[in-house]
Amino acid sequence: MTVADHLTLNELWQRAKKAKDPIEKHRFLAVYHAKRGLTAKEIAKITLSSTRWVQETVQRYNREGPEGLRDKRHQNPGQKPKLTPEEQRRVLEALQGPPPDGGLWTGPKLRDWVERELGKKLSLYPIYRLLHEMGFALRVPRPRHAKADGEAQEAFKKTSPPRSRRRGPRGGG
Q1: Own/partner pairs, 46-55, CB within 8 angstroms, 24+ separation
Q2: What angle, rounded to 10 degrees, do the helices at 9-18 and 22-35 form?
Q3: Is there a contact between 114 and 122 (Cβ–Cβ < 8 Å)?
Q4: Which of 17, 20, 47, 84 is 20 to 30 A (C-alpha) from 34?
């Protein structure tokens, strides 16, 4: 495997030792071993990587030099937000009051409001993520069985022993 003469063997070793980013360190080590004359298969075994990864890393180094081995994900700002800060402010204001049809706000209600008021069609995932980022939590009553007998449940609570004295898996005995 041919390695371009961007850096000497010693410089590659120094870069690998001094690299703070583990991805960058890993890549410099692969190129260092390639410069030493090891095969892609041998380097893959040493670095616990695939031979294809080793070949691609060396090719990137040959094309772009040492800069090609940096982890560029740190500079990736990510996807642009679905709503502008002004639109998010309007959503927050709307959430302070009741929804147009009354009751509590739900994801689908907010999604419909955003589409109607802001003209943006969003799926539920960005709506729920936005609610979470704004500090809202799900408020749903605990489920109750339709045929539950409330009086029988209360009577059971009054007559059954405390959990600490019960026998069974949790009670110990």
Answers
A1: 54/30, 55/1
A2: 160
A3: yes
A4: 20
pLDDT (tens digit, 0 to 9) for every residue of the chain, 173 residues total?
899 999 999 999 999 999 999 999 999 999 999 999 999 999 999 999 999 999 999 999 999 999 999 988 888 888 888 899 999 999 999 999 999 888 888 899 999 999 999 999 999 999 999 889 888 887 777 788 889 898 988 888 888 777 666 565 655 55
Single-letter amino acid, residue 104 = L
Token pair for residue 28? 């410099």
Distance CA 120, CA 123 (A): 10
Retrieve residue 146's tokens: 């339709």
- Give the dihedral of Cα atoms 35, 36, 41, 45; nearest 10 deg: -110
For CA atoms 142, 146, 150, 156, the dihedral sign is negative
Nearest in space to 60 (alpha carbons), one of 86, 26, 90: 26
**CA–centroid distance for 63 within its chain:** 32
**Alpha helical stretches, state H, the chain:** 9-18, 22-35, 40-47, 51-64, 85-96, 107-113, 124-133, 150-159
